[in-house]
Amino acid sequence: MKMVIKEKEYSTYNAICLGYRHIGEYGHVDGYEEQLYLSDDGQYFIYGVGGPDSPYTEPEIILITEEKAKKWRKKST
After folding, report:
1. Main-chain dihedrals φ then ψ at residue 41, nearest 5 degrees
2. In Å, how far from its chain's centre is CA 5?
3. I need a labelling partner for 40 at 20 to 30 A (CA). Which of 11, 59, 64, 66 fits?
């Protein structure tokens, strides 16, 4: 997935995946998946995708801070 945010392109293809988690069952309307990435310039982002009743009704990339990335990783283990 590629997305331009503030005139910069973020891509799951070119970044390092640091973690993955899924919430709910595959195919459920409220289930979703998140992947944490680190871009080549040091920016952390989450790629999320899910069902129509999930936080990710459309595939989305969300920029986050290093602190939030650390908290995300602790929650996903």
Report:
1. -100, 10
2. 14
3. 59
Whole-model pTM: value is: 0.91
* CA pair distance 33, 35, nearest whole angstrom: 7
Handedness of CA 71, 20, 49, 6 (dihedral sign): positive
Q: What confidence tens digit (pLDDT) does each residue in 52-66 have?
A: 999 999 999 999 999
- What per-residue confidence (pLDDT) applies to 47? 97
Nearest to 36 by CA among 11, 77, 71, 73: 73
**DSSP code string of 8-61:** EEEETTTSEEEEEEEES-TT-TT-EEEEEEE-TTS-EEEEEEE-TTSS-SS-EE
What pLDDT digit, counting tens, does each position of 14-30 carry?
999 999 999 998 788 99
CA distance 25 to 4: 30
